[in-house]
Design goal:
The complex is a heterodimer of chains A (298) and B (527). Helices cover 62% and strands 1% of the residues of chain A. Chain A is built from eleven helices and two strands.
Chain lengths: 298, 527
């Protein structure tokens, strides 16, 4: 195992970090500029319905208090310099410091995202690998079409769909919230029940790319591996290339494939057709020559 | 064929596997509301931006967490709350003296004193405080504590309805005083003297209140009162049907479905009007003949029956027809024929396309409503259709307030409002010529010297009969020169579970927040 290339990696990370400074500056300025250009008035938004009966004096005073009367560049610069020092300012919508707003929610967001990610990775890995076992087989087709369908479905729509099904029609899961309506204590079982739908939808929306990625990886491998592809043709009981993920030496392939692809030398083929089915993978007597590395395109 | 069915099965199997994974995580369901009638969960449409009275929360009283000096009874009559009695008013109407109730404590155990009252009012009036409703306290010149149990307000001008403003909730100085009034934690973790304490507030989701066991008015029987914030009417109705909610506010068409199903429907009368502004600056809407013709050409009863499904009343002005302040004889009869005659007589002659013209001006004007507001849209379309019948073209357009506001001096707007507490609260800002175009006050730039004088008299006089005469003048002037076409007053409909017994409703304002509805007095429920 060679030492990771710390030096180049650090330089790359440094370059990226430096480049992020102007990018963030430009993006935040852009956001301020768009907000300034929109007809949306922060003072009206702040005042809400009270603003509809407020006098101009009151509205003007609010504008001054909120700093909304200052020029765009000043507002952006004030925000930027404070943000750099760790002061993210106050949320005018929630009447709270932005840092508090984030802190109150970040834990739940992390829980939601990690639960969804875990499900997506486990389920995606499983389905992807299942699909890749027999590319073109019915499992593959089912999984792939499901993945494409889910990929095409916008998460918000999926969310509405599962809310309609599980919360409204079946009534088995809550449609929203962290705990039951009317409950003030956060208990684990309530959180779990309220987590299922959002985490499920988030997982489903992240699932397709992961399934397709895993399947693609395995399938590419399969295509490029002479033994796998041909073993199936040669004998229905031959292992597919999928098995070879777990047998890096890989070439448990039939003699026929070795004939078609002379590069995969027969001495590395541990598999032989037998009535007992595929033999358990065995390490070859000596390491495979470089030519067989095509079994592992990556 | 076979291959396809196998594939189909595969999809099914995958779907089933997914469903299993998803449902495996679910625990057995449990009802949100227990059977015991000691807790109630209600669905409301809007939540307050803040729970700090200093920023405007509960300014019209009945905030549950706080008390004002005064409060309203079922008939909206003022009665003392944190004050020991109704205020003493000086002869010139400019000094209000409140004696405070003794022995009242905030829910954290600290005593309530006159200092908290002074703190609350002075903070709201402070320039640095971002309270958009502070204009309502404009009359105050000074607030002063005399000892621990007396507060004296001095006013800049005589202001008859001032006592109505003192339903404003009182915040504790020891909690709210030490922090930034605009962004401090008091807005989310309030402490007051009211019948309930805040147990939990998940913004956009729910607001849970817990009975304040030390409440000076006696501990409420409903120990836990939860308000679920559900913006979507259909979702609210579904959750009410599923038993997740014990009560909810609903639009008329959804409320109908609940009749006789273990729930009671309550129709709260309101001052909540819908009106069309007829800007003075527009050559068509500024014309008195056009205004008067439109006033009798709109079929208000059909709007009530069709748009409100009967849950409302026809409106001829901001004052509802069943209010004690309503002027008998100012009702308008629906009469399109007479409306046409009025226009004919004023020289508005039908053009080729049926739309009337006078001196080269077509009787046509735009009418804006806030996009997304179905009720206003329906009113606007009905108005346009009625106007068309007398040869006046109304182009209905939707937009946000940002789009509408700059057009208000020339374009008509489908507006709403209504405060039941005092006739001054609606009519003064709506009709005074010196408030024309001041924010959203007097959106129609109404300009009538007689009305201006009457509004001033009504506001300043402490005498009930004089005030009644003043508001009669205003309402009669609105018949002669209707700068607004008032259409309807809207009932607010609530559906509540039977087990809470017979409940009551108050007359409600336009902004019916969390303390309106049958739960306006939830602290007094005795199920």
């Amino acid at each position: 195992m060679s030492r990771p290339p710390w030096g180049p990696m650090a330089r790359l990370a440094g370059r990226r970090a430096l480049f992020a400074v102007p990018v963030l500056g430009t993006v935040t300025f852009g956001v301020f500029a768009i907000a300034a250009a929109s007809p949306f008035d922060p003072v009206k938004a702040y005042a809400g319905t009270a603003g509809l009966s407020a006098s101009q004096d009151t509205l003007d005073q609010l504008r001054a208090n909120l700093g909304a009367d200052e020029p765009l560049v000043t507002r952006w610069w004030n925000w930027l310099t404070s943000a750099v020092q760790g002061d993210l300012g106050d949320s005018s919508a929630l009447r709270q410091p932005v840092a508090d707003v984030i802190a109150e929610r970040v834990g739940w967001s992390v829980l939601l995202a990690s639960a969804a990610f875990l499900v997506a990775v486990l389920l995606g890995g499983l389905l992807g690998v299942l699909a890749a076992r027999r590319p073109g087989g019915w499992t593959d087709r089912a999984v792939t079409s499901l993945a494409y369908t889910l990929e095409a479905a916008p998460p918000f729509w999926l969310g509405l769909l599962v809310m309609w099904l599980f919360a409204l029609k079946l009534g088995v899961l809550p449609a929203g919230g962290l705990t039951d309506t009317g409950s003030t204590v956060v208990t684990a079982d309530q959180v779990v029940r309220h987590l299922v739908l959002p985490a499920g939808v988030l997982a489903l929306s992240q699932l397709p790319w992961f399934v397709l990625y895993v399947r693609q990886g395995s399938a590419t491998h399969s295509r490029r591996t002479p033994c796998g592809a041909h073993a199936r043709v040669d004998s229905p009981s031959a292992p597919s290339c999928w098995d070879m993920h777990f047998a890096p030496e890989c070439c448990r392939c039939s003699r026929s494939s070795a004939r078609v692809y002379p590069n995969s030398s027969p001495e590395h083929c541990s598999w032989r057709p037998s009535s007992a089915g595929p033999a358990s993978p065995r390490r070859p007597s000596r390491p495979p020559p470089p030519s067989t590395s095509r079994c592992w395109p990556h | 064929m076979r291959a396809r069915s196998i594939r189909g099965m595969g999809t099914l199997a995958t779907a089933a596997a997914l469903a299993t994974v998803v449902s495996a995580c679910s625990a057995p369901g449990e009802g949100a509301s227990g059977d015991a009638a000691t807790s109630a969960v209600v669905g409301i449409a809007y939540e307050p931006e803040t729970l700090s009275p200093l920023l405007g929360f509960g300014k019209d009283g009945n905030s549950k967490i706080f008390d004002g000096l005064l409060t309203h009874d079922a008939d909206l009559k003022l009665k003392p709350a944190l004050a020991a009695a109704l205020p003493e008013v000086s002869d010139d109407g400019r000094t209000y003296t409140y004696a405070l109730r003794e022995g009242v404590k905030f829910s954290d155990g600290e005593p309530f004193t006159a200092k908290d009252v002074v703190f609350t009012y002075e903070t709201i009036l402070d320039e640095k405080t971002n309270n958009a409703s502070k204009g309502e306290l404009d009359a105050i010149e000074s607030v002063e504590a005399k000892g621990d149990d007396t507060v004296v307000f001095r006013l800049k001008y005589p202001y008859a309805p001032f006592a109505e403003r003192t339903v404003l909730p009182i915040a504790p100085e020891h909690m709210a005083g030490g922090q930034d009034v605009n962004t401090g934690s008091f807005g989310t973790k309030p402490v007051g003297t009211g019948p309930y304490k805040l147990a939990k507030w998940s913004k956009g989701e729910q607001l849970v209140l817990e009975a304040n066991s030390g409440y000076w008015g006696g501990t409420p029987k409903i120990e836990r009162f939860t308000m679920a914030i559900i913006k979507d009417d259909d979702v609210r109705a579904t959750r009410l049907r599923s038993g997740d909610l014990d009560g909810a506010i609903l639009p008329p068409n959804l409320a109908k479905a609940f009749q006789g199903s273990g729930q009671k429907t309550y129709a709260a009368k309101s001052f909540d009007y819908r009106t069309v502004t007829l800007p003075t600056g527009n050559k068509v809407t500024g014309n008195t003949a056009v205004r008067r013709a439109l006033d009798i050409a709109v079929d208000r009863q059909t709007m009530v029956d069709g748009i409100l499904e009967g849950a409302g009343k026809v409106a001829y002005g901001p004052v509802p027809t069943d209010s004690e302040w309503f002027t008998e004889g100012t009702e308008r009869t629906y009469d399109p024929k007479k409306a046409r005659k009025v226009l004919d007589a004023a020289g508005w002659k039908p053009g080729k396309d049926g739309i009337r013209v006078k001196d080269g001006v077509r009787a046509s004007f735009p009418l804006w409503y806030v996009s997304g507001d179905k009720l206003r849209q329906d009113h606007a379309l009905a108005y346009a259709s009625d106007a068309k019948k007398i040869g006046v073209e109304v182009e209905v357009q939707a937009g946000t307030w940002e789009v509408i506001e700059p057009r208000m001096p020339k374009d008509a707007v489908l507006a709403g409002g209504g405060s039941p507490a005092d006739p001054d609260f609606d009519q003064y800002p709506l009709l005074r010529s010196d408030l024309a175009g001041d924010g959203f006050n007097n959106m129609g730039w109404y300009d009538n010297a007689t009305v201006d004088r009457a509004l001033k008299a009504g506001r300043e006089s402490g005498d009930r009969a004089e005030r009644k005469a003043a508001y009669d003048t205003v309402q009669r002037e609105l018949v002669k020169n209707p700068g607004y076409t008032f259409l309807t007053h809207i009932d607010h409909l609530y559906v509540v579970d039977d087990r809470f017994g017979d409940l009551s409703t108050q007359v409600e304002p336009h902004d019916h927040g969390l303390a309106a509805g049958p739960w306006w007095n939830v602290e007094d429920w005795r199920p």
